[in-house]
C-alpha cells in the first residue's frame, strides 16, 4: 500500500501506446481529455482537413461519414494517395485488425470496424481482417494461446455481424492462417528491423520475451498484398510476385496502433519486392462512461457498453455512470446551462446522431439550459439501444457455416478498382 498518502498529485503527460491509453493529469491531479492534436504533432501524422474531405466527396461521390465530418477520424498518413488511386481506378485494399483479448466486443471496439465497413462499401475494394490471437497471448500473461484462438473465433462472428460483405472480405486468425508467403514476408521483414528500432517504437527492454519482439513484424507484413496470394487470383502462386507487392494498402485504426505502421512505412521499400508505404487513417478513442481522459475498457465493466448489453443495461449504465456536464439542480441548469463538451451522453450522440442540424440544436439547447440532463441522456440511450439491438439481430444469423466462409482463403470479388495485372 502507498505509504505517502498525503503526496500531492502532480501533472502527468498523456501516455498512448498499443497496450495502454492514459490521458494526462493537470496540476491538481484531475484527468484531462486526450490531446489528439498534440499526439498527431508528436507522431508527425497529418490532420484531416476540410480540403481533404472535399476531395474525398469529389472522388467517391459520397458525403463523408459523420465520424469524418466531426473529426472522430482525425488524422492520416497518405490518405490523399489512396484517393488518387481511386480516381485512377488503380487497385488498392483495406486491412484492419482486432486483438482478441475477450470473448465479446464493446461499443468502442466497433467504431473503427464499422468505419472500415463503410470504407469498404464506398471504395468497393477487398478487405483483409487480422485477428491477433498470437499477440494477445504473448502480451497477456494470464491468457493461453488456446483461449485467444477461441476468442478470435467468437470475435470474428461479432465482426461479421457488423455487416462486412462476404465477397470482398477475408477474416483470419494469425495462429491458424499464417504460413507460406505471409510467413516468408514476416521473416524477410524481421531481417530488416533491428532490436533497437523495435525497442524505440514499443518501449521493450532486454527482459521482454522474444515473441513480443518478433510480433510487430507479423502485424506489419499483413499490409503486404503478397501475404494473401489467394485473394487476388485463382491461379496458385508458387512465388511472391512483384506486381502483387505493388498493390497499396489503406489501414483504418485507433491512433494507438500507429507505432506499428511507422515501422512498416520506414521499411516497406526495402523488401525484395517493395510495397508502397501503406496509407493510414486514425480514429480517436470512444470516451469511457466516466468521461475525460479514459477510453472504454473491457477490464472495467462500468466504463463500457458491451455489444451483448440488454436495452435495460444500457439505460442503467447511461443513467448511472455517464458523466454529465449538467448542473446539480434543475434550477441551476436552467439558469447556468450545461456543458456539452464534457458530457458523455452528448459525446455519444456525436457518434450516433447522423443529422448535423439536429446535433447542433442539441448542443445549443443543452448549453443554454433549455435541454435537461435527463432529456439528453434519454436521447443517447435510444441511439445506443438501437445500434446495439441491430447488431444483436445480425449476430444471431452468424452461424459456424457463415464464419467458415469468411475465414476461407479465396479469391475476393470487388468492383471499385481495376483487377491487378499479375505478371
Ligand atoms: N494490435 C491490434 C489490437 O490489439 C490488432 C490489429 C492487428 C490491428 N492489425 C491491425 C488494428 C491493423 C488496426 C489495424 O487490437
From TrEMBL:
Keywords: Aminoacyl-tRNA synthetase, ATP-binding, Ligase, Nucleotide-binding, Protein biosynthesis. Residues 1-24 are annotated as: Disordered. Residues 1-15 have a biased composition (Basic and acidic residues). The keyword Cytoplasm does not apply. Pfam families: tRNA-synt_1b (PF00579). CDD domains: TrpRS_core. InterPro entries: aa-tRNA-synth_I_CS, aa-tRNA-synth_Ic, Rossmann-like_a/b/a_fold, Trp-tRNA-ligase. NCBIfam families: trpS. This is tryptophan--tRNA ligase. It comes from Aspergillus pseudoustus.
Amino acid at each position: 500500500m502507498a505509504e505517502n498518502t498525503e503526496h500531492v498529485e502532480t501533472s502527468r503527460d498523456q501516455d498512448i501506446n498499443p497496450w495502454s491509453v492514459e490521458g494526462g493529469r493537470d496540476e491538481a491531479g484531475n484527468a484531462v481529455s486526450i490531446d489528439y492534436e498534440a499526439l498527431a504533432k508528436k507522431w508527425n501524422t497529418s490532420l484531416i482537413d476540410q480540403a481533404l474531405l472535399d476531395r474525398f466527396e469529389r472522388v467517391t461521390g459520397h458525403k463523408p461519414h459523420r465520424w469524418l465530418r466531426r473529426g472522430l477520424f482525425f488524422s492520416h498518413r497518405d490518405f490523399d494517395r489512396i484517393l488518387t488511386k481511386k480516381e485512377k481506378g488503380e487497385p488498392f485494399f483495406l486491412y484492419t485488425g482486432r486483438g482478441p483479448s475477450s470473448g465479446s466486443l464493446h461499443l468502442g471496439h466497433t467504431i473503427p470496424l464499422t468505419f472500415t465497413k463503410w470504407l469498404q462499401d464506398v471504395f468497393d475494394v477487398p478487405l483483409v481482417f487480422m485477428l491477433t490471437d498470437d499477440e494477445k497471448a504473448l502480451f497477456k500473461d494470464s491468457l493461453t494461446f488456446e483461449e485467444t484462438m477461441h476468442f478470435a473465433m467468437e470475435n470474428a462472428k461479432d465482426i461479421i455481424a457488423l455487416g462486412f460483405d462476404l465477397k470482398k472480405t477475408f477474416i483470419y486468425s494469425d495462429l491458424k492462417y499464417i504460413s507460406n508467403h505471409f510467413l516468408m514476408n514476416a521473416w524477410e521483414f524481421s531481417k530488416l528491423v533491428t532490436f533497437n528500432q523495435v525497442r524505440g517504437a514499443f518501449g521493450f527492454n532486454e527482459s521482454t520475451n522474444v515473441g513480443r519482439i518478433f510480433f510487430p513484424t507479423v502485424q506489419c507484413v499483413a499490409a503486404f498484398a503478397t501475404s494473401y496470394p489467394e485473394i487476388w487470383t485463382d491461379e496458385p502462386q508458387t512465388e511472391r510476385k512483384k506486381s502483387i507487392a505493388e498493390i497499396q494498402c489503406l489501414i483504418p485504426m485507433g491512433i494507438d496502433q500507429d507505432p506499428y505502421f511507422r515501422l512498416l512505412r520506414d521499411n516497406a521499400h526495402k523488401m525484395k519486392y517493395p510495397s508502397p508505404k501503406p496509407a493510414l487513417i486514425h480514429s480517436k478513442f470512444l470516451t469511457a462512461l466516466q468521461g475525460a481522459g479514459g477510453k472504454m475498457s473491457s477490464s472495467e465493466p462500468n466504463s463500457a457498453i458491451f455489444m451483448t448489453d440488454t436495452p435495460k443495461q444500457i439505460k442503467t449504465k447511461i443513467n448511472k455512470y455517464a458523466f454529465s456536464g449538467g448542473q446539480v439542480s434543475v434550477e441551476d441548469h436552467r439558469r447556468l446551462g450545461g456543458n456539452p463538451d464534457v458530457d458523455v451522453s452528448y459525446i455519444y450522440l456525436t457518434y450516433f446522431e447522423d443529422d448535423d442540424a439536429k446535433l447542433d440544436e442539441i448542443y445549443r439547447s443543452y448549453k443554454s439550459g433549455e435541454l435537461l440532463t435527463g432529456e439528453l441522456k434519454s436521447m443517447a440511450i435510444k441511439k445506443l439501444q438501437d445500434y446495439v439491438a441491430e447488431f444483436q439481430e445480425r449476430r444471431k444469423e452468424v452461424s459456424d457455416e457463415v464464419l467458415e466462409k469468411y475465414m476461407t482463403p479465396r479469391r475476393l470479388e470487388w468492383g471499385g478498382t481495376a483487377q491487378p495485372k499479375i505478371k
